[in-house]
Amino acid sequence: MSEPSKTPPTSKDVRPGPGRKRSEASRLAILSATRELIGELGYERLSIGGIASRAGVGKDTIYRWWPSKGMVVADAVLEEAQPFYLAPPARSGSVDQDVRAWVHALARDFVDPVRAGRIRAVTAAASEDPATAERLYERFTQVQRTGLIDRLRLAAEAGEVRPDADFGAVVDAILGSLMYWVTARRADLSIASVDSLLDVLLRGLRVAPESEPEPADGRKA
Amino acid sequence: MSEPSKTPPTSKDVRPGPGRKRSEASRLAILSATRELIGELGYERLSIGGIASRAGVGKDTIYRWWPSKGMVVADAVLEEAQPFYLAPPARSGSVDQDVRAWVHALARDFVDPVRAGRIRAVTAAASEDPATAERLYERFTQVQRTGLIDRLRLAAEAGEVRPDADFGAVVDAILGSLMYWVTARRADLSIASVDSLLDVLLRGLRVAPESEPEPADGRKA
Amino acid sequence: MSEPSKTPPTSKDVRPGPGRKRSEASRLAILSATRELIGELGYERLSIGGIASRAGVGKDTIYRWWPSKGMVVADAVLEEAQPFYLAPPARSGSVDQDVRAWVHALARDFVDPVRAGRIRAVTAAASEDPATAERLYERFTQVQRTGLIDRLRLAAEAGEVRPDADFGAVVDAILGSLMYWVTARRADLSIASVDSLLDVLLRGLRVAPESEPEPADGRKA
Amino acid sequence: MSEPSKTPPTSKDVRPGPGRKRSEASRLAILSATRELIGELGYERLSIGGIASRAGVGKDTIYRWWPSKGMVVADAVLEEAQPFYLAPPARSGSVDQDVRAWVHALARDFVDPVRAGRIRAVTAAASEDPATAERLYERFTQVQRTGLIDRLRLAAEAGEVRPDADFGAVVDAILGSLMYWVTARRADLSIASVDSLLDVLLRGLRVAPESEPEPADGRKA
DNA sequence: GACTAACCGAGACGGTACGTCTTGTCTTGGG
DNA sequence: CCCAAGACAAGACGTACCGTCTCGGTTAGTC
């Protein structure tokens, strides 16, 4: 979940060669110090020097393995990310049940102040460095997005939801809402609101009970 | 749209007193230079000194009137924000038409690279300074949010949409999606996706055609 | 002792014309505030803004009448300089008595901590601004120097001291010693040391008791 | 003549420890740039940033090793101070010859415009910062003072000069005069004046040729 | 008694320098 | 070759003053 990002020793391309091996202790100390300092200072006031000093590590050891502060933060947060929401939703029941259960689990995590702080840190990191954004998207967002989309597609095949909806847009609305609540609105992310949004979305996705003639009016494209 | 932020001369509480008056030319030069530099450098590489130098202004003149880089950016962007999406959606037709028209207009703005860059800048500013976040929320997000919510409430009174939905959550899903697309996903915000999301949401909000028995299953709270 | 230095209303060249007259109250407040702040902060940490604020005066009122911080300090100190050492030494006795009495009076002033602080301030002012140095030399040092030299010349005419000595050099040694003690050596200026120096100098100036054959050896030029 | 002033590695108290060593090249570049800028701008208009920029060095490298502008100037000037006047006067002849030779050498240095400029700079530095004054006194003035006093004391033992004079006061008059000429009087320091002062002082120090009864009159203490 | 010019307080202005902080690189000595 | 320590060049930070420039408001004269 956080191998060297700069020179990833992908399998065999690096000869074991002479020289001291990378210190796992240092790597862990750096990521752990980073998580601590995110909690104490937030992303902006975090500094590479501060992490090195807290971790009892030379600054160069950080620069040797990570290209930027954002990447360190990304790895630090990813390392402790809960595994359950990197797994796709269950397929054992109705879409409603499965999606709701999965989103609830994620939302509960977002509600925790420590986790929310890390989400904000990681968001700030992404917003100032495209490479970090890319990494986070690949390793975090995309996994969730794909999992949810696939579950919806399965439901479509099962005839539970309309097959012609843009599932990507729907999933983005769910994940975007959560992000929006912990970053932009900084407010009370309530489980009730999440639930209510899911109500509307799932109802909107449901196959028309009869021959409802299309949304009809107001469509642009 | 960008009166002094530090000592807002709220109506009459500031006597015209002695001393040179604030230079409107400087204020405009600062905000204009800020917008230019956001486009050229992005928020992170923007510096107070750089703004001052580009604007032909002393750094103190910036620090005298704004408490942080974020606030300068907020004012710079707010000053040129289009007025139409600070106005509420029209009430002249179906909810579908009115909401769609309003969201389209906003989305078209988000698609413009210059505007999108400013949105990202303003988002970064908000994510590193709560005071800036607060200002932006008050002056930008809240206005839009309230406008949309009120339009939905009106529709509820008119029997167009279900009155028991959490309109706040729905609106946050719309605005959150847009934010999410220009910041986190950094991807192609397509009008088609926006439209598709609106389809699902509006359909989900529509009053049940008959005695649909409630979402029923999977509800948590 | 401290008329306007910038635009000295030398007699008649300025028509009395209409317009408000210079405020004597402001002038006094400025010089007085300057003396206070010299005591509290020393010359280096003194600022024009600080003087203006302490004096309850606009900065421009200072800049209108004085060209530099050094000049304000010069005037502030000159205004309260004791008159006795701006008068020449008495001519009522032996050179020894007259010179010693005059130098004692001056030295006693230099020993006072407040006065010594002002001397140091004025010295710093002179060392950073030639115009201030010039003004202080004219109004302070030169007066003393000329007075002492004249007294020694009178003694030479009276046959009390050797007429071929360089009285300027001797007087500079006296005044230079005092300056040196309060500025460079920052040490204990003791009246005893002054006395001892005067012993040596006056003895060295005394006419040779008999046909002493000249210093003879070691002369360079 | 200019080891680190902040953390002087006095012999063994600093373990050689890990970490990059202080760059001698930077140290020399800083002191050399300082001397250049003293000549071009004078002490007052000298700035740390200017020194750093001229030396091709970061500001921090200056602040790391010197506590103030004054100290940098002190080290810069001390480093190129001529060694001869930090050595005591010769003891190879009459006091007259030895003292005169030594003072001439010093005075010739003071006459040189570049050296005089440095003396003025160092004086200004001392006058605005006690710590700098202390350092300069220890490393420069005190050495000269002690050397001269010792030579006079030796002469006293040899019966060349009166043993009861305050040699400190006499030496201060010599050194003070020189300082006074280059700083306060800003005037023509002429070798002739120095010589004349030495005439008077040395004559005044000479043992009374016969039973001269004491200065007698006018003595205070 | 109005006019008018200069002075005054206040304080904003464009600048320069400050001393601190952080960045990313380089160097040293030890493992 | 890795690592901790830490010096280095670069440059942004926010503060303090500089000396200049409006602002209204206040005094004197002169019409």
TrEMBL record, chains A, B, C, D:
SUPFAM superfamilies: Homeodomain-like, Tetracyclin repressor-like, C-terminal domain. PROSITE patterns: HTH_TETR_2. The keyword S-adenosyl-L-methionine does not apply. Residues 1-25 are annotated as: Disordered. It comes from the Bacteria. Keywords: DNA-binding, Transcription, Transcription regulation. Residues 24-84 form the HTH tetR-type domain. This is TetR/AcrR family transcriptional regulator.
